[in-house]
Amino acid sequence: MTYASVRYIVDDVQKNIDFYTTHLGFTLNFTAAPAFADVVRGPLRLLLSGPMSSGARATPADADTPGRNRIHLIVENLEDEVARLKAADLTFRSDLVTGPGGSQVLLEDPAGNLIELFQPSAPT
User: Fold this and answer.
1) DSSP 8-class letter at 36
2) pTM attached to this predicted model
3) Which fold has domain 4-120?
4) Radius of gyration over alpha carbons of the chain, in Å?
5) Which residues form the VOC domain (predicted)?
6) Which residues are 30's β-sheet partners?
7) C-beta separation of 107 from 117 below 8 A
8) Full pLDDT tens readout for the chain, 124 residues
9) Spatial separation of the C-alpha atoms in residues 91 and 71, rounded to whole Å
């Protein structure tokens, strides 16, 4: 399978492995924790780079905080997903927002990176 890869700089690789595999349906593809791991969900390969990884060390000092970019995960029932994740005491960074294309909410991973959970509008 060909993957689209996204790198997230994280402060604790194992904590983020647990977050993505436990709560968001990713599977562990490879780990060299505490430096690095990659987790996979469908065609998305998420690279989790800890402070000792080459990916994190190559990051400029002025770009050392989580950014406004986010991965976008499509869900079948957003309200059910929000309820399930709130029951797990996870951190949300937005309220549910609905627009012409669908509904979305922003979830935060343990390192402060954003995950957009999105439910497309029903076709008309």
Assistant:
1) E
2) 0.82
3) 2,3-Dihydroxybiphenyl 1,2-Dioxygenase; domain 1 (3.10.180)
4) 15
5) 2-120
6) 38
7) yes
8) 688 999 998 999 999 999 999 999 999 999 999 999 999 999 999 999 998 887 777 677 776 666 667 899 999 999 999 999 999 999 999 999 998 889 999 999 999 999 999 999 887 6
9) 16
